[in-house]
Amino acid sequence: KRIMKGVVAGVRDYGNKMGIPTVNGAICFHPDYLGNPLVYCGNVGIMPKDCSFKKVSPGDLIVLVGGKTGRDGIHGATFSSYELNQASEEISSHSVQIGNPITEKKLVDALLKARQQKLYSAITDCGGGGLSSAVGEMGEGTGVRVDLDKVPLKYQGLSYTEIWISEAQERMILAVPPQNLISLQKIFKKEEVELTVIGEFTSDRKLKLYYQGNLVCDLDMEFLHKGLPSIVRKAKWKRHIHSQPEIEQKQNYTQDLLQLLSSYNIASKEWVIRQYDHEVQGGSVIKPLVGIDNDGPSDAAVVRPILYSKKAVAVANGINPLYGLIDPYWMAGACIDEAIRQLVAVGCNPERIALLDNFCWADTDREEILGELVRCALGCYEFALAYGTPFISGKDSLNNEFHYYNKRIAIPPTLLISSIGVIDDVEKCVTMDFKRNGNLIYIVGETRNELGGSQYYYWLYKKLGDNLPKIRPDMGKRVFQAIYEGIQKGYIISCHDLSEGGLAVALAEMCFAGGLGASVFLNEVPCENSLKDYEILFSESNSRFLIEVNKNKKDEIEKIFNEYKVPYGLIGCTDTTSQLVIYGSGGNQIITADIYKLKQAWQSSLNW
Description:
CATH architecture of the largest domain: Alpha-Beta Complex
Structural class: alpha+beta
Strand order of the largest sheet: 3-5-1-6-4-7-8
CATH superfamily of the largest domain: PurM-like C-terminal domain
Distance between the termini: 9 Å
Mean pLDDT: 94
Number of helices: 19
Strand content: 15-25%
CATH class of the largest domain: Alpha Beta
Number of domains: 2
CATH topology of the largest domain: Phosphoribosyl-aminoimidazole Synthetase, Chain A, domain 2
Radius of gyration: 26 Å
């Protein structure tokens, strides 16, 4: 709890002060994260097309801008991929960078002004490896000469090695034509941001470092970038069989639904979201929380970066480490499917979506762990091709294990898929909350007996199960297109994807977010074969949506579904009773709950 509060405080402190809206996210809980809590962070920006290409020329100056260099952050990138133990806090504390958001904000403002005047020809940040990586990568095709004693320091006493590899924050490297230096210096002086010329790009394809007039490094760029032979490791994949929980059919599942809604992975994250500024810059169209009281869980965020345009950018994510414990290949597919369908749920064109991957894994020196990673990467490759969604960036962090004497805590195989899409007209976007009394409720997509890795198995029966959700891209693509067309034509006025907790949780969320009740009949849900009531309620089969349709548009929406040949069912309608009533396959009421009681269960667990 202390660590989680610290992470939230860090994101809040930096993001809010930078004036960047924090609009989307997820939080997953599992006991195997105790040794290595994971924190993902991503951002999206826009830029002029003609600024998207970088070119470094011999004679360009190497200009370091932003914060000063200190010992904080040394080996930060390698530390993040080390195995941890009980001594890590003491001996590796210097690996954690000390951030200063005000310095970063001033740096960004200065860089934008310089970009408008085209004063630099290339730029990169000092991330992992610090100057060694930033300068070394930029000068790969030319060569560099760097005077390390010119680098501004936070304090004296750093060796030239520490200066070269420090990962202190808020620093950027620019390639600047000499004739632009004076104009650049004026901008940075006005913005009160430090600027120092530390060297120049050469034409000899060598990395030369000087310190106090002495040559301390002389390496060929060819050797630096390609001299190290590739590491060859063995990978082994063995499918682990997990036992299925023994579940007896119940007469009533209301208590099960309440337990699921209050479980940490499903419960409201409003306590976290409210600490982040998701309104700054004024472009947020669909925010993290929606509904009549602005406290329902949004599927994706929609941001309009250019305020006078109807065009917008939508961002979402998909993550489920429980699936990775069963089969990382299908976890990859499920995460990709979820990341796509969350964008589709707000009105994003499924043909204009791109993805990013972020792998966090245990010790890949072990064959079976590397085998899991290879299998997950294979899933990313195959399902990205199947859905036509390119990966445009990514990252990884390996060896996330904690050793304490003879005990080892390894994180579960974890893949975060982030998705981004373009929305042509924000006025056609929809949110997940039910809107009006008497409207029709449809489920689109097929429900199967796929509860392996589900929240239902995990939280209520402490089991993983084995029948995890599969991906059927041909059907998924048709479902996505049908939902998109229905939203664009105005037939679908609310849409929510089915993920953690399945149909029952999605229904509850749509009801209490909209302040409306609903009556739903499970025998109208399109299923593979005959399923038990709990399987229909809590299965997490992919490529499924719950939608609200105007009662006068029944024929129109069903025509779209039939044209795309997708499974669908008219399962109920909204009402003003403030009750969610679900009828089982036999016609009896199996869930009867006040929507405000459901909401209370959902909001109570993480109200820290």
